[in-house]
Specification:
By secondary structure, the protein is α/β, with parallel strands linked by helices. The chain is globular and about 70 Å long. It contains 15 helices and 25 strands. Accessory component of the DNA polymerase epsilon complex. Participates in DNA repair and in chromosomal DNA replication.
Length: 527
Amino acid sequence: MEVRKVKTKVSSGFKMRGLILRPDASRYLMEVLESVSDLELDDVIERILDAVEKQPLPSSVIELDVMERAVQDCSQTCDETIDNVFNIIGAFDVPRYIYSTERKKFVPLNMTTHSAPSLCGSARDKAELFRERYTLLQQRTHRHELFTPPVIGAAVEEGRNKFQLKTVDALLGSTAKMGDVIVLGMITQLKEGKFYLEDPSGTVQLNLSKAQFHSGLYTESCFVLAEGWYEDSVFHVNAFGFPPTEPSSTTRAYYGNLNFFGGPSTTSVKASAKLKQLEEENEDAMFVVVSDVWLDSVEVIEKIHLMFSGYAAMPPTCFIFCGNFSSAPYGKTQIKSLKESLKVLADAISEYPTIHSSSRFVFIPGPEDPGPSTILPRPPLADHITEEFRQKVPFSVFTTNPCRIQYCSQEIVVIREDLVNKMCRNCVRLPSGNLDIPNHFVKTVLSQGHLTPLPLYVSPVFWAYDYALRLYPVPDVIIFADKYDPFNISNTDCLCINPGSFPKSGFTFKVYYPSNRTVEDSKLQGL
């Protein structure tokens, strides 16, 4: 491409982001881009722009040293790409981004006034938890076609199909009756038996006597779009709906290649053509997902032996074993028996050399496994419990609950929690079609952009680490290891899988094939 055209592309790219290049920085960048092919040019410029914006910029004028650091950062990213094929990211290692309403973009924690997260959170952390959930959904909803203002000069009919979001204080400030309003807020029960809608601007009492609920599980502490009319300090709800979901591709079109997911890559793995190619070429890759692996059960160990013998000829990429790892929790000998059970499992793996040398093993603790508490995110099983196992099986990782797995360009989230029952028990109103509970559940979680949209007294969360439970942008796969019946549901370009309880569901498990994004329902029959 001609130098003049490249210069124009670079200049317009920086201007679009409100940045100006110094002449020496511009010359340096042009020298760098000389060796870039026309096909890759746009992608490289985007990556450099992202790398520039990640740095703490004193002004909008980009100096030479800033540009040199950005180019170096991008070149390292390209070198690292091929090594970033498989990564397990613990919940406490997930990067934190905060939405800036002034800049209309997500900024990393170190570019804000927020303090570093701590397990013993402050009162501010608890307030921020709900504020950030609200802000995330608000900016997503405002971008949806139903809520974007009509284009100037557009047809009158187009304007009629648009809606405008109101805030709670807009209702409270009105002395007259307000009809046909839509408010985004969180359902709370500030007084027993009385529901309220809350947003950062205030709270308003709800009258739900005539409310219609769209599909989903509406629990306390979940965010809703409430449609109705306001009079005499009460919001009379006609209908409840969830904030619209947004595919990952749409989110990334707005926010570029920010790595929300975590892992060693400085930019999102979605931007890597090399990783995408590797993913498609490796057709033999598979992930075996098993939940409730009761290692103290003779029958479960026998079935795992059967599973290993079946996969010995073609070892899976990864076995994802979710807790609980004991059938009888909370006993005083639980830790001792778990260590012994892990030793038995290590011996079983060693009997199959192909699996031992080729497959990875990921262990995610369950709610009844030994640990400090049932608060999410849960840390991994303690080192003194797993030390012997890790020595015998080097390709094993004991990680947090929930955790994230990045395989090539795919993002996978795994959580071991009995969420379906919890959400059904805490519904404001249970859906009439009980047969379709899994679809209601998946829609709720994706609409909320959060793994546990429940009151904190039902599903406690470390306040400062609530961001680790976010589902934004929507990942490719979510594994809900739940004791509820197994299901596979695709929604918003996201595959949601529940393998069910291994011993309770007749030894069922799931096998995921990343190359074609399909799931195989599997079951172990008698020996």
